[in-house]
Automatic annotation (TrEMBL):
<dbReference type="GO" id="GO:0006974">
    <property type="term" value="P:DNA damage response"/>
</dbReference>
<keyword id="KW-0732">Signal</keyword>
<feature type="signal peptide">
    <location>
        <begin position="1"/>
        <end position="28"/>
    </location>
</feature>
<protein>
    <recommendedName>
        <fullName>Secreted protein</fullName>
    </recommendedName>
</protein>
<dbReference type="InterPro" id="IPR052022">
    <property type="entry name" value="26kDa_periplasmic_antigen"/>
</dbReference>
<dbReference type="Pfam" id="PF04402">
    <property type="entry name" value="SIMPL"/>
</dbReference>
<dbReference type="InterPro" id="IPR007497">
    <property type="entry name" value="SIMPL/DUF541"/>
</dbReference>
Amino acid sequence: MIRPPFMSMSLSLGLAAMLALAPLAAIAQEPRLTVTGEGSASAVPDMATVSLGVTAQDPEAGAAMDRASRVAAEILSRLDGLNIAPRDRQTSDIGLQPVWSRHDSDDRHITGYEASNSLTVRVRDLDSLGDVLAAVTEGGANRLAGLSFGLQEPGPVMDDARRDAVSDALARANVLAEAAGITLGPILSITEGGGGDMPMPRMEMARMASAPVAAGEQTISAQVTVVFRLGDETPD
């Protein structure tokens, strides 16, 4: 029986596809071990971020905004005197909302307006942090929202955390392989995931200007997933 040419071509293409997929199937069936390693590294913070704001009330909306703007301008002027660079202060929010009469009043109405202006300040010289806090409160800041510490150059600390995570993954893989009585083959892949700054408590700042401030340590975490090819069983 003579096969039509198109049938012979289809058979040839099908055979070629099977031969091409065979190595991939063999690789997919190779025994593997996947482990996740976690690491961290710490350093003393060299930067602080202060969140502060101004609120002002007045029966007139425009007057409330003007008062808040004047105080904000005074705060920025004081920051100039402390050599806080323009790049290290940013207006994060400007707001205006009505002030209502008592909630339990039958004749509830607007009695005035409250304007707000929020500012975020980075302090790169921690020795001057107390002076900055005193200056902004003396300048009229009446809403101090929080304080956090950080690193100006986190890259080297992040690299140390990555090394720690890889070492942790290797140690875990060796323990698992030893317990299972098998040998570890070469590393097939390393994937980085997770990681970042570990959450740090934020200090309430209602009394920040007069409170002692301790920077502590900044901890950065890293996570890696490592895939190993498995070898033969270890001899008894």
